Amino acid sequence: MIKIGIRPTIDGRERGIREFLESQTMSMAKSAASLISGSLKDREGNPIECVIADSTIGGVGEAAACAEKFEREGVCATLTVTPCWCYGSETMDMNPMLPKAVWGFNGTERPGAVYLAAVLAAHSQKGLPAYAIYGRDVQDKDDTGIPADVQGKILRFARAAAAVGEMKGKSYLSCGSVSMGIAGSIVSPDFFESYLGMRCEQVDMTEFIRRIEEGIYERQEFEKAMQWVRQNCIEGADRNEKPVDRERKDWEWEFTVKCAIIARDLMEGNPKLIEMGFREEGLGHNAIAGGFQGQRQWTDHFPNADFVEAMLCSSFDWNGIRKPYIYATENDAMNGMAMLFGQLLTNTAQVFSDVRTYWSPAAVKRVTGKELAGAAANGIIHLINSGAASLDGTGMQVQGGKPAMKPFWEITEKEAADCLAATRWCPANRAYFRGGGFSSSFKTRGGMPVTMSRLNMVKGLGPVLQLAEGWTVELPEDMHRTLDERTDPTWPTTWFAPRLTGKGAFTDVYSVMANWGANHGAVCYGHIGADLLTLCSMLRIPVNMHNVGETDIFRPSTWNAFGTDNPESADYMACRNFGPVYG
Asked: CA 92, 529, 575, 136: dihedral to nearest 10 degrees?
């Protein structure tokens, strides 16, 4: 259960001041708690719980009692609220491991803004960055409502803080090691431990063979899964020059379904394995995310893990609609963590893709004889990869009458069925995958707001995030087919048009492609760039490329001390100055 602590601070002077403020101060705390718990859920679908201090906090004794309660309750962040002046350094949250925000009521009768400024100065001086929340418009002193702009900042802080809390103490599970020299699959324990509070776990890919051969999987579930696959997974065209026979294909299906079950069991364990006498295997690796190396040591001989990755990352399988997992193709842990950030902020499935090709309007016209139009008019980026594109990425779910990707608890059985019906499972290209397998093939519906992001590692600097907000684009079928055939039509395709700003990395679509830092990207439903910026500032990860409006950037107030003319440079300096939270 993810919990956020609410700290109602107050002017500690009794016999004339504190008594008149108790009700309003505690009312602010309850209003903030109600807003958070009523608006946000964790990835399991549970409301984010709020824990309020037992009393208002007027001095260090009550601050200490609050801290003890929060430690017992296991809160992952704190929000301090007040309508009045308080003694800043005596009432502030001093826990260096918890993200912090302070909401100072904007009412002229009481100097809440004065306390806010004073306590933020104390946070900066003590190296404990905090997020400032202060309404734009003055409220009446007895107004118990939360203005829309204040609500937005409270929820943005709480979403990011909950993501930090969900990652802490969890694992990233590498199944295998480095795939084809891809830098993102050179997994850095220091990054996970220092920046995310996670640990790195690793198993060799031969563990899948051991469990298959020794029967360390739930056989009843396997039979159920195979029946579901036969009924719901439609095979696509076999484009291999020398197709294998039906017997071999049937064996590959059974093999990959077993691998999917085993991959999930490796991540989070399975009590049924314990009942079968496999206690060690049944405990799992406490993994909130994982990845599979695959190429080439595995896929030159065994069926690929495309089905494994795609189904784990989807919001449904043979057991019905459930939370999506994060399972990265080619064990690209850096892209896997960008996927995890997106999932924790939205509770939706993620799409893993190669950032494959920039198609300029001129190139499209030359190849297809037709003009790009609408959102695609300035050019498009072809996102395509054989692996972990969740089937939610078809866009067959609907929200407000438009294509969407939704939290699993909002997905209907029909929408899950529609995602499956829009997908073809093509026999793998054996030039790439000598061991065979099946790759999902679909075309993402257009018109979805999405954010593509990526974490990169830079020697001497550390992790850096980049992101691009934009839209999925649906091309005319003949144009899509012509362009898609030039890559691999047996893989899932998303046509992406980033939102342009006319400057820097977003001067044009070519600039977005040219400034992308690696071969992969994580695609999340919704324009979540502002939330990613807030989350990264909590984790001390600078952002080097984004198209978020300046008024939507919400970082700790002390970031302003590093310069206000260039927020990107200030972000770099602040992250370097304060360093990783767990480092």
From this structure: -40
Name the E strands within 9-53. 49-52
pLDDT digits (tens, 9 = 90+) for 269-321: 999 999 999 999 999 999 999 999 999 999 999 999 999 999 999 999 999 99
DSSP label at 559? G
Select from 521, 529, 532, 526 the least CA-distant residue to 472.
526
Which of the residues are catalytic? 330, 354
Side-chain-side CA neighbours of 308 within 13 Å: the count stands at 31
Contact assessment for residue 105 and residue 136, using Cβ atoms and an 8 Å cutoff: no
The tens digit of pLDDT for each residue in 190-232 reads: 999 999 999 999 999 999 999 999 999 999 999 999 999 999 9
Strand partners, 79: 6, 101
Residue 111 has a pLDDT of 77
What is the tens place of the pLDDT at every residue in 330-378? 999 999 999 999 999 999 999 999 999 999 999 999 999 999 999 999 9
Contacts of 79 (CB under 8 A, 6+ apart): 4, 5, 6, 7, 32, 36, 100, 101, 102, 103, 154, 157, 158
Is residue 352 within 8 A of residue 321, CB to CB? The reply is: no
Q: Among all chains, which residue has been given the structure tokens 């990783």?
A: 580
- The C-alpha atoms of residue 81 and residue 55 are separated, in whole angstroms, by 13
3-state helix, strand, coil in the chain (%, to 5): 40, 20, 40
By the 8 A CB rule, do 287 and 308 touch?
no
CA of residue 34 relative to chain centroid, distance? 24
CA-wise closest residue to 317 among 405, 221, 236: 221
86 to 42, 53, 308: CA distances (angstroms): 33, 16, 55
Cβ atoms of 325 and 317 within 8 Å: the answer is: no
Q: Mean pLDDT throughout 148-168? A: 98
Structure tokens at 319: 């057991």
